[in-house]
Design goal:
The protein has 71 residues and is mostly helical. It is 61% helix and 0% strand. The termini are far apart.
């Protein structure tokens, strides 16, 4: 039987961000947010790293994300 991959929606991205923003340590939260951002951008080319970082309460900026996130 062939498996089909379910497309992730904004609701899925928000659920992930809600969990990530509960991480108390800001450096760990930022690292986890950026790790997720890299993977999620691969799932959906329209995925916004900056919106996701904000939703995660990450201190990521375009400058810091540019150093860490490569697409």
């Amino acid at each position: 039987r062939e498996q089909t991959e379910k497309n992730m929606t904004r609701k899925d991205f928000q659920m992930i961000a809600d969990v990530v923003k509960m991480i108390d340590d800001k450096d760990t939260r930022h690292t986890v947010a950026m790790n997720f951002a890299v993977k999620l951008k691969g799932v959906n080319p329209r995925f916004s790293v900056s919106k996701f970082a904000a939703a995660c309460n990450s201190y990521a900026t375009v400058e810091t994300a540019g150093d860490e996130v490569r697409f």
